[in-house]
Amino acid sequence: MAGWLGRVSWGDAWYNACARLLRTKPVGAMSQDSDDIIEVTEGSGAGLAKVLTTVDLVSLGVGSCVGTGMYVVAGLVAKSMAGPGVILSFIIAAVASILSGVCYAEFGVRVPKTTGSAYTYSYVTVGECVAFFIGWNLILEYLIGTAAGASALSSMFDSLANHSISNYMITHLGTLRGLGKGEDTYPDLLALFIALLVTVIIALGVRNSVGFNNILNVVNLVVWVFMVIAGLFFISASNWEGGRFLPYGWSGVMQGAATCFYAFIGFDIIATTGEEAKNPNTSIPYAITASLVTCLTAYVSVSVILTLMVPYDLIDGSAPLMEMFAVHGFLWGKYTVAVGSIAGLTVSLLGSLFPMPRVIYAMARDGLLFRFLSYVSGFTHTPVAACAVSGGLAALLALLVSLRDLIEMMSIGTLLAYTLVSVCVLLLRYQPDEQTDVHQYRSGDGLQHQDDGAGPTKDDQVLIESSDPDRSSSYHSGGTEGESDDSDFHTGSASLLKRLLGGHYYTLRMRLGIPDASARPTPATGRIVTRCTLLLFLLSFLLWATVIFGVEQGSGAGAVFSGLMATLMAGSMAKLVIVIVRQPESGRSLPYMAPCVPFVPAAAILVNSYLMLKLSPLTWVRFTIWCLIGLLIYGGYGVWHSTLELNAREQQAHASSYQRYDDHLDDSFAADDDQEEKPYQGCLSVSLCKLHFGVSILRGRNNVIG
């Protein structure tokens, strides 16, 4: 045993383990192995149709967000967390969503030929372990979203039936205690049936079409306007007076913001429509902003009407918008809102369930989840195994877990996924192009690397696009047809700061030590940014944990000490951001780039981590259990059965066969004239074999051959 341990190279073992976790999926495989299931199963090479306009993308984003958020979350947060301060909670959650949205949009355009999710983007750009963790949290997001949508629809139907459905279930099935925060809940069989019904519809290949989505959103819009106008006749300012606007204080507002973040989940669907949008480079950023602003306007206006019509402590938690009219005896208004509830919750439910099997399918196809989940039916062209498993789990959650707990669980998983996306954007922006850009410019295409690190000029881009039309829409050409480099969405932090600061911009650059625009990142500067970003990520959680549990909830000397510690950590984080600013940024131009990097990603990390820590401890316990299950699956199965691992083993076996061939070669020179050239051929073969073996070993080392 001691001899075996002596032969183990712990340095190599650590290197191999880290390389396994950080290996990336070749982007070349993305063009042939698209996440579009129909294209994979039918073998169509035409790709997806570019038919979506900016209006369509806005409709998709609004339809995915406005549903459970408007018809359930507003009343839920107002009743038990923030009171009328739910208005401020929605505004804070919207700011966090916008910060994450711009990072998500840049992350999406970095990888072409994909209609997948942040899982696919991170697998190509960051590494396998981060990709699995993001994909695992996206599954949680869609899983909880489906269960919450089914529960919300069940609550709406129960409210229309004057709560006879819930009373029947409680009478005949009893209650369950301990699944929520100690409150009694009942087995929601109606929610179970709704989730299974939608699962069957999705598995049969019925798509959530844009036309159907637009119709439901029009119904939603009409009902929203009706609620605002009709509610003006029943409002009472006394509901906000006497300290009733913030009955739970600012702590309740921030806790409500963490839950209200759920209401803005869905803009990531916009960022994954690059192949289907007519002009994705401008449509996606505009659509993300417009959908978030539209949702914020809807949530704030509805929250104002709701809290002015009904005292916050009398709001119905299951169907607040319908019951606010019933309280005043306006039953016709109640049934009108019910129509909008059906439309909004249905499109939200379909929007949550439809992408979930696709993420599971993509991860199973890559070998990170069990392979049987990647089975695609030849009849329906859908991943039926992934649909059955995901739909069954969502139905089980809808049956057993209360709606409030579902919403909080969804918020924490999505907040962490969006935080990791912001971290990845911050890392990739400062890495050397040779390491992060796997789509290197090829000299055969007329574009070569320059020694000074400068990118191609605008004239070069025009020549390239005119000579190669297929490359005109590619992100690494730095622009798209019909767009100029001066577009607001093509500029990074530099041009935006120039417009904001004017003549003080260059003074600020000199004082902060910002490198010249011609400077390019090196491996050393890339490692500095990586360390600073990881420290920033960890310190953000430590900072807010100290503030929340030490300053806000502490007292006396303990609170003072926590305040000093928080101040030191805040100063350290500011220093880390300054160190990142002083590093040279990648010169590669993308069709869309998040503005004010590194400040916007850093702000997104800070806001998201704070909102996560404002969620209940029980939510963190459930989330930790979910993450541990994921780590067990990845450590016990995914890391050994991933496609990259299998390819690495195949390369190792291929290299070993060359080595065995080399051992049996005879390099002796023969004296016969007719065999005069054989020694030369043998030496050449040996040299080629050794060269191939060495290259294979290097490739195997990079791909981590176990």
Automatic annotation (TrEMBL):
Q: Where is the composition biased (Basic and acidic residues)?
A: 443-461
What keywords does the record list, in alphabetical order?
Membrane, Transmembrane, Transmembrane helix
- Establish whether keyword Cell inner membrane is in the entry: no
Report membrane topology. Multi-pass membrane protein
* Residues that span the membrane, as ranges: 57-78, 85-107, 189-206, 218-236, 248-271, 283-312, 332-354, 375-403, 409-428, 528-551, 557-580, 592-613, 619-640
GO CC terms for this protein? plasma membrane
Where is it located?
Membrane
Q: Which GO terms describe its molecular function?
A: amino acid transmembrane transporter activity
Q: What is its main location?
A: membrane
Residue ranges of region Disordered?
Answer: 443-489
Q: Which InterPro entries match?
A: AA/rel_permease1, CAT_C
State the name under which the record lists this protein: Solute carrier family 7 member 14b
- The protein's organism comes out as Myripristis murdjan (pinecone soldierfish)
What lineage does UniProt assign to this protein's organism?
Answer: Eukaryota, Metazoa, Chordata, Craniata, Vertebrata
